[in-house]
Amino acid sequence: MNFSDAERAAMEQALQLARRGVRGANPLVGAVILDPSGDVLATGFHRGAGTAHAEADALASAAAAGIDVDGATMVVTLEPCNHTGRTGPCSQAILRSGIARVVYAAADTNEDAAGGAAALTAGGVEAGGGLLADESRKLNSRWAAAMAGRRPFVTVKTAQTLDGRTAAADGTSQWITSPEARADAQDLRRRVDAVLAGTGTIQADNPRLTARNPDGSTAEKQPLRAVMGHTPVPAEAAVRGTDGRFVQIRTHDPAVVLAELYAHGVRHVMVEGGGTVAGAFLRAGLADELVAYTAPALLGAGTAAFAGLGIASMARIQRWRWDPAGGGSAVPVGPDLRLHLEPIPFEEPE
Ligand SMILES: NC(=O)C1=CN([C@@H]2O[C@H](COP(=O)(O)OP(=O)(O)OC[C@H]3O[C@@H](n4cnc5c(N)ncnc54)[C@H](OP(=O)(O)O)[C@@H]3O)[C@@H](O)[C@H]2O)C=CC1
Ligand SMILES: Nc1c(N[C@@H]2O[C@H](COP(=O)(O)O)[C@@H](O)[C@H]2O)[nH]c(=O)[nH]c1=O
Questions:
Q1: pLDDT, tens only, 131-158
Q2: Which of 35, 93, 128, 154 has a Cα-to-Cα distance from 163 of 20 to 30 A?
């Protein structure tokens, strides 16, 4: 399929729109609807698992503005899905809309959702992919790695000082970050399928690990509360709760934890520490994004945010890059800073 200059520009815009979504169980996707002369009619993006897909979002914003999309072109960063997951199939929504042509970047590698282009073609819509496909794949490379590994997408979250401490020398850590930053972190807990901590954190903090609303009430959707490590979690520990959504996984291996969580239906897990567990995920290359709430404060000693990385010299330095997706890579939250990063793949020296 040949692509017009307007379609290429629309795909660049769609990639930018995609970055407004949040990372997690689903890939970042953006969509732009063009009229036959190449003018933008409507745009959309996916806001995260359980919300409208980018195509449906763009169609909804066209409908809300009273714009007729009959005969229009949909430009989207990922092949439209063909399955009913948490929302309905985009291929069918596009067929119903009267859109005449669909241009997408990357093919959908998720076996369950693939087949959208074929369904569109069968329904009489001209559909073709490959426009800026590498950019789209790069945007979602960690998500694709999680899918290929049949494991959840992993967000590691820390609340740390400027000198990278997540607890003081005596083990206390409440609170390093401000109420604003802690409320912001609850957004993540409300979004993920599971929250994970090590037995050390359970012993030190007796945390609840529940998702709360801004007013402090318990959120409707609760993540599974998971603990890794061998020390038995006491019967009276708050993390056990009363809703049965608790699991202890008696291992030190992050891959084993992820396999077990995946079997429980978890597609996005937030690792909330402590430093031993967070470090184990980073060392294993199993952290897909890092959200580091950083307080302008110093502790001088205490628990390191990431222990046991096994880095002895600059040759093994673990580098990350800023990730602007989901609101920005460095965002002030109250007096603190929320840093959002993604790992740079490590290349062995030749
Ligand atoms: N500011 C923040 O963001 C946070 C701060 N904290 C603070 O951090 C401190 C706890 O951190 P930390 O002591 O590192 O505890 P962790 O919560 O990381 O738990 C560590 C324990 O988990 C088990 N474990 C699980 N996986 C591994 C592994 N891969 N390697 C080794 N052990 C493993 C071990 O216990 P076992 O023998 O049972 O197997 C280990 O002692 C507390 O002071 C807490 O207040 C905690 C969370 C977040
Ligand atoms: N100390 C610290 C955090 N600590 C994390 O929050 C857990 C407590 O959760 P809960 O009992 O559900 O409120 C605690 O065990 C640890 O995982 N989080 C932050 O955003 N900022 C902070 O300064």
A1: 999 999 999 999 999 999 999 999 999 9
A2: 154
